[in-house]
């Protein structure tokens, strides 16, 4: 998991906005092969939208060939209600950029048949080639989209009853009147999010700190559905210092250090993009007796649906440049003794340059001497 920590909300959102712009530009979308972007609502991504609009107005990015799918929508309030997610998205983002209205997809919380609406939404995502980057926020109870505590981690787009905590949190948008907050919503499922090629969650403010702690430092748990990102091959959390308040100092330092090391090595922690060529079929297992026999165990038919649904092969193959995910972050690399480091690093490609034979033995000697002295 990539975990980016910035001093404040503005810096965190600026990182996310820049990241999205880079991903779109790198992808170079066309009408035939658009970039498919999943989007959230809420106050956390507001600055991201503002900055994306700024970048668009500065002529630095175009949304002409971007297709969007929003995460969720309330059930039962009119589409043009000021607090509907339709209104939110047009007010804060879509009406300020050159996106084609026909490329915007938002669930219809007033559909005659809500179930059918959800199934059709999944079909639309699939038909668009899957989501390239799903941007998300997080609820105070750790929910992603409206996947409230207890949501199945294999869930798909569906009707969801909102948790009391969420109704309470969102009442601030409805004049603090609980009775005005919709009690149900349509939302993409946890599995829908996990199937995106990349997931980026922006988490800002001390209110989110307890949830962030559970999602980062504790195990995958349906009570904190953002924690399911631990199962994704390319998740990224971007947060401000306030959101880290409940994390251990050690965790914060660890992730900050990872980012610093990556940067020092010339990685910007951005996935090299391989242009998508359309929906990739699920890999099939071919078992053959032909020579030479494979020594790699084939996936077993008992592999869970969840794991089969997110195979690494579905995500962009990193071919050209190495990715930070593969960068060794080993305690061994901090050892300043070439001989010992070589012994602890079996992979020849990761080994340091071999030192002069004389020098090496003198380093080894001094190590041994030091050990004797310490003993
Ligand atoms: N369905 C949305 C979520 O997608 C969002 O992440 C959450 C947090 O919103 P905020 O950023 O305003 O705290 O609000 C709602 O519940």
Overview of this structure, please?
The structure is a single chain. With about 375 residues, the protein is of the alpha/beta class. It has two domains: about 1-265, 3-Layer(aba) Sandwich (Rossmann fold); about 330-375, no CATH class. Helices cover about 30% and strands about 10% of the residues. The protein is built from eleven helices and ten strands. It has helices at about 10-25, 45-55, 85-90, 115-125, 165-170, 190-195, 210-215, 250-265, 305-310, 340-345, 355-375, and strands at about 1-5, 35-40, 65-70, 70-75, 105, 135, 160, 185, 200-205, 235-240. The strands form two sheets. A seven-stranded parallel β-sheet has the order 1-10-9-6-2-3-5. Helix 2 links the parallel strand 2 (about 35-40) and strand 3. The longest helix has 19 residues, at about 10-25. The radius of gyration is 24 Å and the shape is globular. Mean pLDDT is about 80; it is low at about 270-330 and about 360-375. Bound molecules: 2-amino-2-deoxy-6-O-phosphono-alpha-D-glucopyranose (GLP). The site of 2-amino-2-deoxy-6-O-phosphono-alpha-D-glucopyranose has 13 residues, from loops.
